[in-house]
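Why predict the complex rather than its parts? Because the way molecules touch one another can change local conformation, and only a joint prediction can capture that. The input here totals 356 residues.
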Amino acid sequence: MRLPLVAPLLLCAGIAAAGEIAPADRRSDSVLMRPELRAMQDDDSANPGMLAVLDGEALWNAGDKPCASCHPGGMRGVAARYPAIDAALGRPVDLEMRINLCRTRHQNAAPFPYESKELLALSAYVAHQSKGLPIAVADDAATHPFIAEGRALFTRRQGQLNLSCAQCHDDNWGKSLAGATVPQGQPTGYPIYRLEWQGMGSLQRRLRACLAGMRAEPYPYGAPEYAALELFLAFRARGLAMETPAVRP
Amino acid sequence: MTARVLINVPKTAKRGEIIDIKTLIAHPMETGYRTGPNGTILPRDIITLFTCAYNGVEVFRAELSPAVAANPFIAFSTVATESGTLEFRWRGDNGFAASATAAIAVE
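Output of the joint prediction:
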């Protein structure tokens, strides 16, 4: 009866730490997708995420004090710099948090619930304007503590499976997990249209799905841990081109 | 608010040329087999019929089933015969109806 002991040992050896992905090896997760899905993402008339972008454009220009009244020049490049530090809060906020802060501070409106159609449409519309631009979050004294916090969350083992994000997405990307290819986890195309969801979802929703998959308890929506993780992921993906709205399997 | 629609039709074509037409419509395509958060069955809400008429003549028709994914993407081809309009219509459960038109110039 030695076999049951040997198997876990082999598994441990298989997921030994390999460290962070070298800059030359960083790539969008869309290159790991099958060609049909990539074609769907790259064709604006086939990409269902474009429906959300169009909804977002309508919302951007709607209401008594529309977003467009403060931001007439559009938002090209903005999403590539998010998450960014909010001066008043003193901590990073992601694009969805920023849109809701804008609503409460400047538009005198109630924040949209997380994963609501409106919030996803607005963030898709804003992020789509940065399509093709390299991700370039701030790399300075203000963001460094939060990048470090995000890295600690990324590399910390958690959940009943006792896994860290890094064990899959740094050490074993490109390999197969059941029928799926393990991606690098580069946040290039959020919010994404995910076929499994049959709809749009934010990076927070994606992170929650990963946490639940590790059988860890997901943080509540809007938790500072997400902003730190998202900031670290964006820092990790710096230089990769934005591709919102991405299509994922 | 009517459903959001994306249509891709070539603006111009040569007479007799085969043209590709792509349509995408926002729709949940709820199958009627899934349960909601409280355990009750979510009622079926799907698009059941899609048609395309070219200058009033039906050139394509599709009957959709609960197995079709959300936001149905339907692509097909037809022969460019004359200049005019392509009219697209979607019909479905709960009185769902949407339509869109696209102009095409045939040389």
